[in-house]
Amino acid sequence: MGEGQGFRENYRSASGDIRAEAAWQKLVKSGPPERPAEAAFNLGVLLQRRGAQKEARAAYERAIDAGHPDYSPVAAFNLGALLNRQGDYPGARTAYQRAADSAHPQVAAAAARNLGLLLEKQGDVDGARAAYDQAIGSGHPEEATAAGVNLALMLRERGDFAGAAQAMRQVISSGHAEHAAAAGVDLGELLAEQGDMAGAKAACQEVIDSGHVQHAPTAAMNLGIRLGRDGDLNGARAAYLAAISFDHPDLSPAAANNLGKLLHDRGDTAGARAAWQQAIDSGHRQWAPNAAASLGALLKVEGDFPGAHALYRLAIDSGDSDAEPNAEYNLGVMLYQQGDLEAAKAAYRRAIASNHPEHAPPAARNLGNTLSEQGDLAGAEAAWKIAIRSGHPAHAPAAAVNLGNQLRAHGDLAGARAAYQVALDAGNQNVVSKAAVNLGNLLRQQGDADGARDAYQIAIQSGEPEVAALAARARATLPSSDGGA
């Protein structure tokens, strides 16, 4: 039973009727000896239901004091829930503890778990653990496993990963239809985070084999992502195929989209095409347009411009926050290749307007390149600065190099030097070498041989063979630091 909920089974005949409330009141005051606890409990439920919290509390306390084996523990549980909602945590703790210690077959386990939740919120980890353990030890088919889940989450949040894994395994061993599968998913993620991929794979596979409608495809999807990151591409492929096979309305299209990316990166374009098409055919509001954007990019590379354009249009029209700017950027690239520069610039600008962290920066960089080629130097500078301000690890420094080259070509050496320094400071090895050589050439042009020598050395050490060789030759022709040739 969830925290704050109360037991109400015993007042169904009352139905909130004021006459029933009066009847229970009469039984409380003058009923036969076996009825006061029942009457006080049901009166408390009715009073609480109509908002008379103070009176309900008094009725529950009267039922508790009666010492009835059934109604007293239930009243204690309901009182704990009432006091917890009112913020009287010490009172709620006392009431829950009384119900938990009652050994009532229904109430004790639920009260122990709610006590654990209350103590966890108050930061009493030891007390919460003891309460959860009490609920787990009850063997209650619902509350024991639910308490195991709560215990595992608490321990994981506090860095006790071994304890969390043990609690998760205990829940899994219960065989509970819902909690066991959910705990298996959590255990797989926990073990993966700890670097135990073999254990993670085993945990996920057990959930997959369970066939649970939600948790099995979740475990397969999680496993595919983890294995893909670790370079186990065959394992990732198998996991994504498993996720797809469950025909889950959300996870199966997502898995098809991920599988397409995985296969594309492996060079299996036919497999990627089929996977992305499956995601597109699903009509999923998110994964269909994202797969369309990816498949469109593949068709563009293959020279199928009409097919690519149709898929880009599908992605753009979807309005998806990822797929739309991705497709606009790639559409811009394709239109540029086809020589339609005005349409390409328009597509780039729409991608830039999205402010998407991945797709807006390359669009700004490409727009700058296009405008520079057309002689619009101010427009190019503005576009490149958008890319630079984005801080994108690849496109910001590349745009900075382009900006530096343009400024140097038009005599703004100070501005060029600053732009090259931005590129160097980004630390992207694919760009550092070019920026360093260009900076070295600029400093040489300014007569700063020592500065040029340092810049060329950066290029030499960048690991780019061709650029390093060029920098070494340029460095060798600099005058020596002592003034010699």
Describe this structure in words.
- The chain is elongated.
- The model is unreliable at 8-16 (pLDDT under 50).
- The longest helix is centred in the C-terminal third of the chain and has 17 residues, at 429-445.
- Among the domains are: 1-152, Serine Threonine Protein Phosphatase 5, Tetratricopeptide repeat; 159-248, Tetratricopeptide repeat domain (Serine Threonine Protein Phosphatase 5, Tetratricopeptide repeat, Alpha Horseshoe); 269-355, Tetratricopeptide repeat domain (Serine Threonine Protein Phosphatase 5, Tetratricopeptide repeat, Alpha Horseshoe), CATH 1.25.40.
- It has helices at 18-30, 36-49, 53-65, 71-86, 89-100, 107-121, 125-137, 143-157, 161-174, 179-193, 197-210, 215-229, 233-245, 251-265, 269-282, 287-301, 305-318, 323-337, 341-353, 360-373, 377-390, 395-409, 413-426, 429-445, 449-460, 465-476.
- Helices cover 75% and strands 0% of the residues.
- The protein is an all-alpha fold and 485 residues long.
- Helix 6 packs antiparallel against helix 7 and helix 22 (395-409) runs antiparallel to helix 23 (413-426).
Low-confidence stretches: 8-16
Query: What is the mean predicted local confidence, pLDDT?
Result: 92
State the separation between the terminal residues, measured CA to CA: 87 Å
* CATH H-level superfamily of the domain at 1-152: Tetratricopeptide repeat domain
Class derived from helix and strand content: mainly alpha
Could you name the CATH class of the domain at 1-152? Answer: Mainly Alpha
Report strand %: under 5%
What is the second-level CATH architecture of the domain at 1-152? Alpha Horseshoe
Globular, elongated, flat, extended or rod-shaped: what is the shape? elongated
Rg on CA atoms, Å: 34 Å
β-strand number: 0
| Share in helix | over 70%
Encode the helix/strand succession as letters: HHHHHHHHHHHHHHHHHHHHHHHHHH
How many helices? The count is: 26
Major sheet characteristics: none
Q: CATH topology of the domain at 1-152, which one?
A: Serine Threonine Protein Phosphatase 5, Tetratricopeptide repeat
